[in-house]
Amino acid sequence: MFSFFKWFSKDIAIDLGTANTLVYARGKxxxxxxxxxxxxxxxxxxxxxxxxxxxxxxxMTPDQITAVRPLKDGVIADFRITEHLLRYFxxxxxxxxxxxxxxxxxxxxxxxxxxxxKAVKDSSLSVGACEVTLVLEPMAxxxxxxxxxxxxxxxxIVDIGGGTTEVAVISLAGIVYSRSIRIAGDEMDEAIxxxxxxxxxxxxxxxxxxxxxKTIGSAYPLESEKIVEVRGRDLAGxxxxxxxxxxxEIRDALAETVFAIVDAIRVTLEKTPPELSADIIDRGIILxxxxxxxxxxxxxxxxxxxxxxxxxxxxxxxxxxxxxxxLTDTDLLKKIAVE
Length: 339
Ligand SMILES: Nc1ncnc2c1ncn2[C@@H]1O[C@H](COP(=O)(O)OP(=O)(O)OP(=O)(O)O)[C@@H](O)[C@H]1O
What we know:
Structural class: alpha+beta
Shape: flat
Strand order of the largest sheet: 3-2-1-9-10
Strand content: 25-35%
Radius of gyration: 21 Å
Number of domains: 2
Bound molecules: adenosine-5'-triphosphate
CATH architecture of the largest domain: 2-Layer Sandwich
Distance between the termini: 28 Å
CATH class of the largest domain: Alpha Beta
Number of strands: 18
Largest sheet: 5 strands, mixed
């Protein structure tokens, strides 16, 4: 029978991340890439801005508006606002055409609960999807990084995002072992805020901390160390103040977080079946996720594990490319879809 909806349907794949959400449209590639942030009017409870526009409001909003990230530590902290966010992304990807009912594949964190799975599915269906399939982020990341996930060989992928670090060993289209810790980029930003507060009595915002991390943050000594000016509020005098902070200091601030990430990798290696370990010795570890871009983190992991370590081509888009590939590989999608 001729299906009206099928005829109009426009398949999309979504990487629903703690920090960023990306949408991949079939035949087009990545069409949206925006922060997972919603600005809410606290009087009416209604959203007033999404994505880039809402992120620009973080820490700068008047009392009546609050900018929130509905996903925290890799899980859904606020279902209602997550639904608003999904609606925004799905509608925008479909050019706000209400007749379009896409088939959607969504990458979700490995540690997602049954209730959260249902919430993501229900939200997507309620905003117009005709079918929703969930896949796990580490698997999508491995596919996006071009690893031979269906082969009987061990592949290790480490996805270091905003809220979570997920370490997974994949073989025969299954996750053989995975470890997920709620420590990643957000924790690094928080560590920088605490360090600057403790050492300089200077209060800085999350956005400033993230900029410091991206410009001079590192996990291992840099060839040439750097210094940046940091602006914030002096906690003693209560006035705006400027301080100079070095890359060595920021490395100190990040040391604990980096240690936790390395430790998660080490524990996963210890739990990996020996046959697959042998493959990992040959193939090494693939890093992905935005926080894998922390300077010299690959080098640090290589030194600590003694294994070859490589960064995926574009760590911020690997998961989206992986779910995007699944739009046209239904056989693989069937094997890896989560119930
Ligand atoms: N050059 C960089 N150096 C260090 N960190 C970076 C860099 N670029 C981006 N990041 C960090 O990467 C994180 C976002 O990564 P990504 O978009 O992969 O996360 P996500 O998929 O939204 O999160 P999750 O996987 O936890 O759900 C942020 O914490 C951001 O600050």
